[in-house]
Amino acid sequence: MNLLWLQSGGCGGCSMSLLCHESADLFGLLADAGIEIAWHPSLSEASADEVLDQLAVYERGEQPLDMLCIEGALLRGPHGSGGFHRLAGSGRPMTEIVRSLAQRARYVIAVGSCAAYGGITAAGANLTDACGLQYEDHLGGGLLGADFVSRGGMPVINIAGCPTHPGWVVDSLMALSLGQLTPRDLDPVGRPRFYADRLVHHGCPRNEFYEFKASAEQPSQQGCLMEHMGCKGTRAHADCNTRLWNGSGSCLRGGFACIACTEPGFEEPGHPLSQTPKIAGIPIGLPLDMPKAWFVALGALSKSATPRRVRENAVSFRVEVPPDSSKPPGMKP
Question: How far apart are the C-alpha atoms of 263 and 108, rounded to whole Å?
Fold first, then answer.
């Protein structure tokens, strides 16, 4: 299967992330799954007229196009012309080229939240009229339309993230090549379920603090970041804390709150990303599936039962109170 990768309105961060895949031979890994990168703007040698000629071959249907990967939002402005982003050397709007290639491609993949939903590129006044391939924020539509289905019978596959985890991209491509990714394997906003059916909260190293509602009050403190520091890990669909980045890290393990970068509209939450908005002292962004009354009752009970070790370490920059070692596990009381 050949793979064509184009970059539209974005920062290129998803390509940079892809190069951090844990495999020492990324191209060999893809080749073993029957995937050949026909062209990537940063990784391929072909340029200028060579690329334009290859795109024309795909557009005319003279050679099959199996996977069309788009990185970055699609810039429809000004006034729907797509003139804000023309493919170098072609004089044509990138939106026109992507629409044409999408009709030929067996699968269309949005790599990153910008290509999926508009993302950072569509934030603010959105003067470029940026959008995702099949979504505009959480609403169906985008460049290709809500009813778009590729030749392989799939809607756009939204590998959302800012940037995407390299494992999400590679696993999605390999699943497609093996015929193991179907419309049923996508969630309601087009994300592959193998990573989107989990929450960032799962596996979070701060979960003990969360359970006791022992919260950090300043950056770099060890406590839970949900109550005061803007963390959305209990609402964000991703497996970041169980599928670690570069084999060892995640935002939360690095001391940063989860900003829910895999979610439509994450870029404009309506408040500073480092703060948790509250009403009557209760965080607005409660965990998914948790009624507000339950959270209030659970929070009050948890805080009343918080061990001194957890309470003091939560607002410390290091472990101030170590676990009690006076009674080793297994010792009779």
Answer: 19
